[in-house]
Amino acid sequence: MVSSGRKAKGSKAKNLVPVHNASVTSIEVAKHAGVSQSTVARVFARPELVSVATRQEVFRVAESLGYLPSAIAAGMRNQRSGLIGVVVPSYGEYWQGVISEFSRQINDDSRQLLLTTFRDAQGVEGAIRSISRYRLDGLVLASSTIGVGQISRLINSSMPVVAFNQPDAANIAPQVVVDNQQGATDIAMHLIECGVKSVAFVGGVAQASTDKLRYRGAVEAFSAQGISCPYIQAGAFNYDAGFKIGAMAAVGNQLPDAFMVAADEIAFGVLDGLRKRGVRVPEDVLVTGFDGVPQSFWEGYDLTTLVQPIELMVTGALKLLVEKNSTDSVIVEGQLRIGNSTKVRNNHG
Amino acid sequence: MVSSGRKAKGSKAKNLVPVHNASVTSIEVAKHAGVSQSTVARVFARPELVSVATRQEVFRVAESLGYLPSAIAAGMRNQRSGLIGVVVPSYGEYWQGVISEFSRQINDDSRQLLLTTFRDAQGVEGAIRSISRYRLDGLVLASSTIGVGQISRLINSSMPVVAFNQPDAANIAPQVVVDNQQGATDIAMHLIECGVKSVAFVGGVAQASTDKLRYRGAVEAFSAQGISCPYIQAGAFNYDAGFKIGAMAAVGNQLPDAFMVAADEIAFGVLDGLRKRGVRVPEDVLVTGFDGVPQSFWEGYDLTTLVQPIELMVTGALKLLVEKNSTDSVIVEGQLRIGNSTKVRNNHG
DNA sequence: ATGAAAGCGCTAACAG
DNA sequence: CTGTTAGCGCTTTCAT
Q1: Which of B61, B174, B316, B337 could form a disulfide with B33 if both were Cys (CB 3.0 to 4.6 A apart)?
Q2: What is the rounded CA–CA span in Å between residue B181 and residue B185?
Q3: Architecture of domain A180-308+336-342
Q4: Residue A149, Cβ neighbours under 10 Å: how many?
Q5: At the topology level of CATH, where does B10-76 sit?
Q6: How far apart are CA A329 and CA A36, in angstroms?
Q7: Cβ distance A332 to A178 under 8 Å?
Q8: Which residues 305-334 of A have a C-beta within 8 angstroms of B?
Q9: Inter-chain touch A295–B299, beta carbons under 8 Å
């Protein structure tokens, strides 16, 4: 399992200059460049305040020595680290997109992402303690399963906090959410247009705030049409939980016209579970999701779903972190995406 | 799009104590506890050196003030930040698992994950510069598309670096990889046992080091059996690229017995592309993947693939970061997982 | 077992 | 435009 070793270094001497040698400080650069330490510091922090000649010389020396200013020392001095903490669940297709979007936008703003993922809500409080010691410029708490109590103690701290996709946080902290209820209504309206007469709503965990809102949006739209819409709990926001439902579920011993599922990943499981026992989608039953993860667009699923505008939501979250005074919520609209998992039913019954 | 505001605080006064107030320093705690600043510092850094009574009192005061020691100041003093940098591609099913495993193991060791994701290799060098300023305890470079040149300048820096899944780095930096060639051979042997007489290898990008090794493993196994195995380049390591291949590909105007695909995510596309035009898997053609991402196990794909032992690989990478002296590579074996995308062929031809 | 003091590398007045 | 200086909050000798 272990083998081979390192051999030759880079072939050209030029390449041997290290990208960064952390043991080189501004003092050393100053000596070599024949200027003061503060001039070196200024060259990197506020180059416009230094004459072009000096600036170039300092850059040259710094480059040759592998000097880069220490973000740790700067963070100490500035009382801000340049780090944004993001706390998200370990798994779930949805979160990968969120993480990479946060990463991109944070880096674009020349800051860095301190990421913590968690499997269950238990560890979240400790995780927050640990990362808050880094004097974060801001903290993003994601997931509808983080307790509101944990947030309320945080907002009193000196660090800006924003809740991401956690409707429960509405009156406690600044937050960014997709309009879950409206999105569910949009999907329900689409199903109504497809001509469904009975629907089963498949949720992940009934206590989750997103589940509640999505179910509420569904119920309100359907009940106005006299369509019943019982809630079935999958038990988790993942594929396996959905698969069990799809493979077994029959409401009152017969299939509903549609399964409206609270999250795409669960919906993939429902779809596969249904297909496993020979039920065709959309011929025999319609299926919808929520989130708009990449797989929704894959031919194998091609799911009707509500696409969350993640880029916009991340932008909003980072903006709320800066506008400390703002206590407003940002509620963005999702976009209905109609795939091949729904179609107008020929009501042959 | 913007609505509502924050209202009541927590209902119990007890909850109003902030988790952490960054403006409280050890000096303030010391005053309130009637001890010196260094005693407060010791209580948190080396509690065993302080009497139980003092320790408890300091903890009590600290808690009531919302004090937590600053990791930034400690990092400055200690010349180490407690941060591990991880640089990975933005997208790809495989990487989500890698990220969350790094997160878990790094946190378990009470350190923190500084994550940077990148879309194309161009930005990687700048990203590395940015994060190395945080005096990282170590840096993990992942992906077979990071240039070797970038790594070679890094290993000369003071910071421990390890390459993750980048076979090209073999003689340049400590690295952790799955045994790509052996894994490909394992898959090829399985296909041979299935009775295939012709195979098309679908790669992502021909220049990628993982592609090369996986193709080599395939070719060696197949050629020993007199089975040809042309290389088809999908052009990217993603679903869409695979879909195009699956939807169009016919080698010499007819299907091969099997598509051996270089990565699961591409394979999902190939599968869906084939199905789209009515080709059945595994009845008409066999398909295999590589990586063992979660979706491989989903019923809709149920892919024969080589599962990478990510937990083990991450453990190995973090260990290499500590053992600075070690220049060895860690090469782990993947595990063949046989799904429903392959079966023994009845050679009716 | 505790306190005093030095200093990690930077930034930002302030002075020249 | 550049140099001098005083900390940021912690850890760690070195005394006591």
Answers
A1: B61
A2: 6
A3: 3-Layer(aba) Sandwich (3.40)
A4: 13
A5: 434 Repressor (Amino-terminal Domain) (1.10.260)
A6: 48
A7: yes
A8: 327-333
A9: no
Nearest partner of A86 among A121, A137, A123, judged by Cα: A137
Determine the 3-state secondary structure of B217 from DSSP. helix
Does residue A251 register a pLDDT over 80? no
Share of chain A above pLDDT 90, in %: 77
pTM above threshold 0.90? yes
Which three-class secondary structure state does DSSP give residue A163? strand
Nearest alpha carbon to residue B72 among A111, A87, A136:
A136
Q: What is the rounded (10 degree) CA torsion for B290, B293, B295, B296?
A: 40
Closest CA to B301 of B334, B337, B251: B337
Q: Which of B3, B125, B130 sits opposite A112 (nearest CB)?
A: B130
In this chain, the answer to whether the domains covering B81-179+310-332 and B180-308+336-342 adopt an identical fold is: yes
Hey, which residues does B287 pair with through a beta bridge? B259
Q: pLDDT-derived band of residue A14, with 50, 70 and 90 as boundaries?
A: very low
Q: Which tens digit of pLDDT belongs to each residue from B203-262?
A: 999 999 999 999 999 999 999 999 999 999 999 999 999 999 999 866 556 899 999 999
Q: How far is the C-alpha of A187 from the C-alpha of A181, rounded, in Å?
A: 10
Question: Strand A199-203 relative to strand A161-164: parallel, antiparallel, unpaired?
Answer: unpaired
Q: How many CB pairs under 8 A join A and B?
A: 266
pLDDT band for position A171 (cuts 50, 70, 90): confident
Q: Which residues are CB-neighbours of A312 under 8 A, at least 6 positions away?
A: A332
- Let me know if A309 is exposed, middle or buried by CB neighbors in 10 A (0-12, 13-18, 19+): middle
In tens, the pLDDT along A176-200 reads 999 999 999 999 999 999 999 999 9
Instruction: Looking at the structure, give the CATH architecture of the domain made up of residues B81-179+310-332.
Output: 3-Layer(aba) Sandwich (3.40)
Residue A112 contacts residue B130 (beta carbons within 8 Å): yes
Q: Which residue has the higher pLDDT, A224 or A2?
A: A224
Residues 161 through 200 of chain A touching chain B, CB cutoff 8 Å: 170-174
Q: How many angstroms separate the CA of residue A94 from the nearest CA in chain B?
A: 11
The alpha carbon torsion through A283, A287, A292, A296 (nearest 10 deg) reads -40
CB contact under 8 A, A153 and B17: yes
Q: Which residue has the higher pLDDT, A15 or A166?
A: A166
Residues of B (14-43) placing their beta carbon closer than 7 angstroms to any atom of strand D are: 23, 25-27, 37-38, 41-42
Hey, what are B219's tokens?
């070719």
- Say how far apart CA B160 and CA B212 lie, in whole Å: 27
The two structure tokens encoding residue B304: 């024969």
Q: What is the pLDDT of residue B7?
A: 36
